[in-house]
Amino acid sequence: MDTRSKILTLAQAASLTGPLAMVTGYFDILRAAHIRDLEALRQRAGGAKLLAVVLPAPGEILTQRARAELVAALRVIDYVVIADAAAAHRLADSLQPVELVRLEAADARRARELREHAHRRQT
């Protein structure tokens, strides 16, 4: 299966039906902590499908499209959409997910920790 087929347009995502959980984040760089967060969300959401919204990342390492493809490759994710924060907010309002998790703060912290770790290793 080509996991890129999980990547939807905003219009396609807006037409999703059934129970749905939604997670927003930068996913730059994808780390094991992301997987744990996503698996925990999947558990809490029960049978709901999981939609990940990949947001533009400040100082991104990978492009938004590349990050969306990585997230789509995760078995725990059912759908991925590329959007900005305003579009993600509108999408959440229209879909009314059973659970909405925002990972932006955790993603920013993880990226900072990774940069600090790499810097310490070089000095």
Tell me about this structure:
- With 123 residues, the protein is an alpha/beta fold.
- It has one domain (3-122): HUPs (Rossmann fold), CATH 3.40.50.
- It has helices at residues 10-14, 32-45, 64-72, 85-95, 104-122; strands at residues 7-8, 20-25, 49-54, 79-82, 99-102.
- 30% of the residues are buried.
- What's the end-to-end separation, in Å? 44 Å
- Structural class estimated from helices and strands: alpha/beta
Rg from C-alpha positions? 14 Å
Helix share, percent: 40-55%
CATH top level is: Alpha Beta
- What is the average of the pLDDT values? 93
Biggest beta-sheet profile = 5 strands, parallel
Number of domains: 1
Principal-axis shape: globular
CATH architecture assignment name:
3-Layer(aba) Sandwich
Contiguous helical run count: 5
Q: Strand order of the main beta sheet, please?
A: 1-4-3-2-5
State the fourth-level CATH superfamily: HUPs
Write a concise keyword list for the protein shown above.
123 residues, alpha/beta, Rossmann fold
Describe how the helices and strands are arranged.
Elements: E1 7-8, H1 10-14, E2 20-25, H2 32-45, E3 49-54, H3 64-72, E4 79-82, H4 85-95, E5 99-102, H5 104-122
Parallel strand pairs: 1-4, 2-3, 2-5, 3-4
Concise structural overview:
With 123 residues, this protein is an alpha/beta fold. Helix content is 47%, strand content 18%.
